[in-house]
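Support request, please re-run this one:
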Amino acid sequence: MRDRLSRVLATFFFMGNFPVAPGSLASLAGTLLAISLHGHPGIHVFLFLLITFAGFAVSGRVEKLLGQKDPSCIVIDEVSGVLLAFFTLPLTPAVIVTTFFLFRAFDMFKIYPVNRFEELPGAVGIMADDLWAGFYTNITMQLALRWAGII
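Re-run finished. Output below.
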């Protein structure tokens, strides 16, 4: 039962089992979740922390069950990272699209020091790179929106 629950959570309710681009699908789900939480920063923080703690709790376990380093079916890290990326941003259509694609770029290209965190073992290695991608995305968007005079 514990293994099954770990798989359900790590795959973010089986989205990670999607045959094409499961990380992008989970990022989209996280984006939709962030949009639904707009205007409720307390709930946003609560769900971000809940999903992040769940990710740390289950992703290493599923990695061991599958016998693979950071298997692509584990996507709870993308959901956590994208929730961080959207935190406190104004949610105009342009911001939503830009933030989504910028997060995916930071997640895929893993610029320094994100690439170093990915090498860490277990849940830390799985979760940390996406949390950093979310952090980089949020900071980049905050700076760009301030520079543009939007916020």
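Residues 2-14+22-147 form one domain. Residues 35 and 69 are 31 Å apart (CA to CA).
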